[in-house]
Amino acid sequence: WSYTSFTDITFEEGADFSGAIFKAGTDFANVTFNGITEFNDVMFEGKVLFLDVTFKKGVGFKKGSQKKGTTFKGETSFSGVNFEESVYFDEAVFEKRVSFYSSWGIAKEANILRTEEYPNERKRTTSFIKTEFHGQTTFNDCVFNVNATFGSAQFKGDTYFVGTIFEDELDLKSARFEQEFKFMPQKIEKLDLKNITTYGYTKVEHFES
Predict the structure, then answer these.
(1) Contact indicator for 137, 160 with CB cutoff of 8 Å
(2) What pLDDT shows up at residue 177?
(3) pLDDT tens-digit map of 77-134
(4) Pairwise CA distance, residues 58 & 13, whole Å
(5) Contact of 34 with 13, CB cutoff 8 Å
(6) In three state form, how does the secondary structure of the chain look?
(7) Is the confidence at residue 8, as pLDDT, over 50?
(8) How confident is the model over 46-73, as pLDDT tens digits?
(9) Cα separation, 100 vs 17, whole angstroms
(10) Beta strand 202-204 with 197-198: parallel, antiparallel or unpaired?
(11) Residue 146 has pLDDT above 70, yes or no
């Protein structure tokens, strides 16, 4: 596949890709971002790989100054990613399959958030507010070490939270699941399901809380 490669790079300072358009596939495997990183209003038109990537500071994949939001048109993988501070996917759109699962044996479990406190935030967070997932979405075996919110997110394909660990609150308020939804976390501290909507087969298994 035709792609742009940023593999095995370390960005020592902040990195700002806001408003960029990646026409081909994009590969960020084994990249370390040591500063604040922005992918706001970015258009990824091909396959996107963020495999075994470390974000040392905050990162945004959300609606920025251009008010477009970040769009992933091809299959997308964030397997094995370690977000060490807050991460935002607010109003991002995933048009095809997306995985936050450690598939292919490339990395260990995906630590979606292991953070230090953001100086201007009241609470550390992983945010997917109003995010649209159009294809299959997998959060299997991920570890959320702080608050995670999917408020008003739309899951249009099959969605899986299997073996997932939520060390803090999981907010699914007003989330919409249109296809198969399997919610079988390994552990969850607190759960908010107010106004959740499911249309397909739904399986919820007993979990530790």
Answers:
(1) yes
(2) 97
(3) 998 888 888 889 999 999 999 988 653 323 334 445 443 333 444 456 788 999 999 9
(4) 12
(5) yes
(6) CCEEECCCCEECCCEECCCCEECCEEECCCCEECCCEECCCCEECCCEECCCCEECCCEECCCCCCCCCCEECCCEECCCCEECCCEECCCCEECCCEECCCHHHCCCCCEEECCCCCCCCCCCCEECCCCEECCCEECCCCEECCCEECCCCEECCCEEEECCEEEEEEECCCCEECCCEEEECCEEEEEECCCCEECCCEEECCCEC
(7) yes
(8) 999 998 899 988 899 998 888 788 999 9
(9) 21
(10) unpaired
(11) yes
Q: Which residue has the tokens 């408003």?
A: 19
Length of the chain: 209
Reading the block at residue 47, the tokens are 């396959």
**Which amino acid belongs to residue 66?**
Q
